[in-house]
């Protein structure tokens, strides 16, 4: 009986520790969880800048067209901004992971980017290439 009691106590402590770890308050870059990607360049460049951007879980990315009149779009597998040459497009990311997108007008080989959601230390799965995501 004595042993069982001890085991129960340990289990209770472990459960408490787990729920404590669940707190999703992770540091964010901007403070408000909003990040901006510039679409194109004023001289007509075919780029997203930055190419890869990190946001916290549930963070929102704003794409801001500054393309010198060149039409681009932001296409994800689950939706697109539509082709345009000015304005903005916003998307919120409730799931951790790496999400790639591209400009359908110019093609993924020419114009693509990615959004990395969640500040995972990423030991498992994906990650891989040491592309410095930090500015
Ligand atoms: Cu484009």
CATH superfamily of one domain: Cupredoxins -  blue copper proteins
CATH topology of one domain: Immunoglobulin-like
Bound molecules: copper (II) ion
User: How far from one another are the termini?
Assistant: 58 Å
| Range of helix content | 10-25%
Q: How is the main sheet built? A: 4 strands, mixed
Query: What is the H-and-E element order?
Result: HEEEEEEEEE
CATH class of one domain: Mainly Beta
CATH-scheme architecture of one domain: Sandwich
> Mean pLDDT, rounded to whole units?
78
Q: Structural class of the helices, strands and pairings? A: alpha/beta
| SS elements, strand count | 9
The total of helices stands at 1
Note the overall shape.
globular
Unreliable stretches (pLDDT < 50, length at least 5) are 10-31, 121-133
Question: Strands of the largest sheet, in order across it?
Answer: 2-1-4-7
In percent, how much strand structure appears in the residues? 25-35%
- Compute the CA-based radius of gyration: 21 Å
Topology:
Elements: H1 2-21, E1 34-39, E2 48-49, E3 52-55, E4 59-65, E5 75-76, E6 79-80, E7 88-93, E8 97-102, E9 112-117
Parallel strand pairs: 1-4, 3-9
Antiparallel strand pairs: 1-2, 4-7, 5-6, 8-9
The structure holds copper (II) ion.
How would you describe this structure to a colleague?
- The chain has one helix and nine strands; from the N terminus they run H-E-E-E-E-E-E-E-E-E.
- It has 135 residues and is of the alpha/beta class.
- It has a domain at 34-117: Cupredoxins -  blue copper proteins (Immunoglobulin-like), CATH 2.60.40.420.
- The strands form three sheets. A four-stranded mixed β-sheet has the order 2-1-4-7, with no helix packed on it. Strands 3-9-8 form a three-stranded mixed β-sheet, with no helix packed on it.
- A hairpin with an 8-residue loop joins strand 1 and strand 2.
- The longest helix is centred in the N-terminal third of the chain and has 20 residues, at 2-21.
- The chain is globular and about 35 Å long.
- Copper (II) ion (CU) binds at residues 46, 72, 103, 105-106, 111.
